[in-house]
Design brief:
Blueprint lengths: L1 E3 L1 E4 L5 E4 L7 E4 L2 H22 L8 E3 L5
Parallel strand pairs: 1-5
Antiparallel strand pairs: 2-3, 3-4
Protein name: Putative RNase H-like HicB family nuclease
Organism: Rehaibacterium terrae
InterPro entries: TTHA1013/TTHA0281-like
Length: 69
Amino acid sequence: MKFNIECEREADGRWLAEVPELPGAMAYGATADEAMARAEALALRALAEQLESGEVRPLAISISLPAAA
C-alpha cells in the first residue's frame, strides 16, 4: 500500500500536511518539513493501531513525500 503526503501553506503562514489515504492523518507545522514529519508520524501510529487491533493485515507500505520546491 502506498501513502502520499500532501502539504500546503495556510493563509496564516502555517503548513498543513495530510495523508489522504488515512482520514484524520493531518498535522500543522511551522515549516513544510515539520508538518510532513508530524503527518508521517500520525500515519504510522494509525497503521500500528490498526495492526494491533486486527483491523488490517500486515502489508508492505511506502510513504511518498512531495519533491522539494
